[in-house]
């Protein structure tokens, strides 16, 4: 029986130690390196373009939504402001309407030279305060008659007017802004039809 040569290696089972902790050192072994992920081929470029286009579309939609929301908010804010002004004018109108008889008395006293002394000072202060609150007096003699702000209590004809006009102011009107609290009560004069007829006849005779 021949003995094997010393230079020959003995064949046998191969044992691989896969333990994560080295039994000799007691330390954690480093894991084997994992292969790097494969680089995507050029076919992925098309997908990126589609994603970019989709993002642009979404951004445009969101921007349109924001612009629409801003427009709605602006309209809401303007509506609230208009309502606030209307409520303020209505409240002021109710208060100032109660003071109109007092202002009428002050006006009559002034017309009769009876606005003197302490009463004059109080009256002028009241008129100043109501003026600051936006109360405006209107109605003047000889101005054109306007049925939206004038209330005709008397009617006459006059050769001195060429259109329906205010002949006299019986009671002044008051308003706040565009809101009329009380129309001016006036006497109205219309052009005299007899005078117009006489003028027409005179013109015919001249021909």
TrEMBL record:
<dbReference type="Pfam" id="PF01025">
    <property type="entry name" value="GrpE"/>
</dbReference>
<feature type="region of interest" description="Disordered">
    <location>
        <begin position="188"/>
        <end position="207"/>
    </location>
</feature>
<feature type="compositionally biased region" description="Acidic residues">
    <location>
        <begin position="198"/>
        <end position="207"/>
    </location>
</feature>
<dbReference type="InterPro" id="IPR013805">
    <property type="entry name" value="GrpE_CC"/>
</dbReference>
<comment type="function">
    <text>Participates actively in the response to hyperosmotic and heat shock by preventing the aggregation of stress-denatured proteins, in association with DnaK and GrpE. It is the nucleotide exchange factor for DnaK and may function as a thermosensor. Unfolded proteins bind initially to DnaJ; upon interaction with the DnaJ-bound protein, DnaK hydrolyzes its bound ATP, resulting in the formation of a stable complex. GrpE releases ADP from DnaK; ATP binding to DnaK triggers the release of the substrate protein, thus completing the reaction cycle.</text>
</comment>
<keyword id="KW-0143">Chaperone</keyword>
<comment type="subunit">
    <text>Homodimer.</text>
</comment>
<feature type="region of interest" description="Disordered">
    <location>
        <begin position="1"/>
        <end position="59"/>
    </location>
</feature>
<keyword id="KW-0346">Stress response</keyword>
<protein>
    <recommendedName>
        <fullName>Protein GrpE</fullName>
    </recommendedName>
</protein>
<feature type="compositionally biased region" description="Basic and acidic residues">
    <location>
        <begin position="1"/>
        <end position="32"/>
    </location>
</feature>
<dbReference type="InterPro" id="IPR009012">
    <property type="entry name" value="GrpE_head"/>
</dbReference>
<keyword id="KW-0963">Cytoplasm</keyword>
<comment type="similarity">
    <text>Belongs to the GrpE family.</text>
</comment>
<feature type="compositionally biased region" description="Low complexity">
    <location>
        <begin position="188"/>
        <end position="197"/>
    </location>
</feature>
<dbReference type="InterPro" id="IPR000740">
    <property type="entry name" value="GrpE"/>
</dbReference>
